[in-house]
Amino acid sequence: MDAEALTTTPVGLLLLAELAGLNRFDFLEQIGEPHREVVDVVSRHVAARAASLDQLAGCNDRLVLLSAFAAVMCPGAADTAAAPHLATAAASLLPVARSLAIAPGARWWWEQPDGDHQRWLAVGDKPPPRGQAFADGLRAQTEADEEEERHAARELPWPPRNGSVYSGIWWSPPLGHGVFTTTGPIGALPAVGLGCLADSAGEEVFQIWDIEITSRARIWEIAGPDDWGRLTARYPRDVTVSRRHDWFRMTGRDVSWVLPDWPKVAQDWDGVHLSIAGFITATGFATTVGDAATVLIGWDPDQTLWLNDVFTAVDHAGSWTGTPGLEAFPDLHLPWLEFR
User: Fold this and answer.
1) How far apart are CA 238 and CA 309, in angstroms?
2) Coil, strand, or helix at residue 62?
3) Measured between alpha carbons, how far is residue 57 from residues 38, 51, 308 in Å?
4) pTM, to two decimals
5) Which of 152, 154, 218, 290 could bond to 242 as cystine, CB 3.0-4.6 Å?
6) What pLDDT, on the 0 to 100 scale, is given for residue 337?
7) What would the DSSP string read from start to end of 67-87?
8) Given this model, what pLDDT does residue 198 score?
């Protein structure tokens, strides 16, 4: 468990600030005052919370810690403004990172998915695809990806003309045509995907399916950027034409871009899992792959992309109605802080 890695990304820094009870609005006001240095503000705040860090280190409530992560995984305006300043004080937040890394309730953030309990969220009554339908979904998505490359070659000139802004497909995982993903349940939350969703359309009704995975399933774990880079390097597929506009604006790099060739990955691996730690440390950054680069983006935390039908049991577990995201959590507070 690499605690220091949590201090290297905006989401990681915002999470540590949340766990330390550092209000971002107050923080921005304080560092705007004359003679108030960022490092001094952060270090004094963490020092004042030193006693409570022992409680964080001993926290075994997985849902409470997950709610803190959900509160910052999609940064708001104050979060976005605060993150660069927090980066200059990353060393001051390291004690918080070390406490989180040893907390029993966060241990699963660095682990593979629980094969006995995975949850698929469905809109409508259609059951999960199995067998040939499962394989057909991946093949249809692959064909759609290939067509997107051809479309981008025709419609998205590079470099942009006359200052025009072009956008193609910006996300990394295959997300359509019935491609199958799951997350695990956490306490009173039927699935992590209900509480940690990057983009919510408001209140929805989901059918929840309980999925059991064979113990022989081959799962590639993404716990950090190196894991994502190695997967892409082993099964590279050129996606420069479709991604270069969006990923250049995101990273500032003008290079060849690659993603995993999912049908080739499926020959060796049954699933690819992005852990919570992997999401925090790898999402949104360019990772060098030989002479090219790749970006992990659009993949939800604790989400496993299944490439082969390795399910031993599939059961309907009921329905859920609500707004995915932070609203999906019960009314929780961090017990080592005063109620906020």
Assistant:
1) 26
2) helix
3) 25, 11, 38
4) 0.94
5) 152
6) 86
7) HHHHTTSS--HHHHHHHHHHH
8) 72
Instruction: Spell out a b/e string for 81-105, using b for 16 or more CB atoms within 10 Å of the CB, else e.
Output: ebbebbbebbebbbbbbbbbbebeb
Quote the tokens at residue 239: 């996606």
DSSP 90: G
Q: How far apart are CA 249 and CA 156, in angstroms?
A: 14
Tokens linked to 206? 């989901």
For 75, the token pair is 């940064």
> What six digits make up the tokens of 185?
């349940």
Q: What are the backbone dihedrals phi and psi of residue 215, each rounded to the nearest 5 degrees, phi first?
A: -65, -15
Amino acid (1-letter code) at residue 23: N
C-alpha to C-alpha distances, 212 to 145, 188, 255, nearest whole angstrom: 29, 19, 41
Token pair 């989180």 is found at: 100
What gap in Å lies between CA 304 and CA 107, rounded to an integer? 18
- What Cα–Cα distance (Å) separates residue 226 from each residue in 60, 173, 204, 254, 268? 28, 17, 36, 21, 19
Q: Which pair of tokens denotes residue 61?
A: 């409530």
Six-digit token pair at 240? 């420069």
67 in Cβ contact with 27 (< 8 Å):
no
Residue 60, phi-psi category: left (phi > 0), alpha (psi -120 to 50), beta (remainder): alpha
pLDDT at 189: 94
Helix (H) / strand (E) element for 292: namely strand 292-295
Alpha carbon distance 339, 330 (integer Å): 15
What pLDDT, on a 0 to 100 scale, did the predictor assign at position 85?
A: 94
